[in-house]
Amino acid sequence: MTRLAVIILIAAAASAASAGPKTVTPAFEAGKEVRVNIGKPAGEILIFVPSDYNDDCNWPVIFYYHGQGGELSTQWLQTATEGKGFIVVSMEFAPTTEEQMKPGQYEAYLERETKNIGAVRHWLQGQLKVDAKKTILAGVSRGGWIVADIFHTRPRLGAAAVIMCAGYHNWLPEDSLSLADKYVYVGTGEKDLNLTPAKRTARYFVNRKAEVTFEVYGGLGHEINPNAPKLLKWFSDLRSNLNRPAAEMKPSEEIKK
Hints:
- The chain is α/β, with parallel strands linked by helices.
- It has helices spanning about 5-20, 75-80, 105-125, 140-155, 195-205, 230-240, 255; strands at about 35, 45-50, 60-65, 85-90, 130-140, 160-165, 185-190, 210-215.
- It has a single domain, classed as Rossmann fold, CATH 3.40.50.
- It is built from seven helices and eight strands.
- The radius of gyration is 21 Å and the shape is globular.
């Protein structure tokens, strides 16, 4: 082998090593779930592609946070949406070493969660037909508190929020943006200790001019009912509502009463 050939082989090997392993694009299929690790900052996520998915339009995406000690899952959201109309992304919490955070630490933590959502959304736009303006944030228990607080302080991030078995922290700085074009669903069990915070959260978002649906799951405690009538209708209506002009919105009379 000539000296020139050896140099070429060494250069090629060095180039391959520096390039590292190729990113494997997950095989998305309508009506199926895909688990993928997208690396920092979000790590592993679970993605459900709706059964009616196609490339003819951009799709709304639900970014979902489970409760404390829970696992990545899209199952109850598949039920609530009847597996249609929405891409669902289940995410883990941003890492933190603090079990009890002081106000400033919690605000910094929310900022990390917000950046994670943005990073995942940016990555997803390279994989599927996604409408970034139709982002829905959803969470249960700990995840519900995070979603409520993000929507409370950074409402520009999403068009709608699903807050389950949780409330919001009223000491956080409030964004001055009117929520007249936003949609919020708040649901909790009749026996849930978070029932009072959930009621307060529904009233708060009504006062911020959001279109609010509030639902109590009869006989349940700290758990959700994915087949709850108002929840099913809320998701059924949401996709068309996201395209509805703000002038057509009606006040949430039920919550005001």
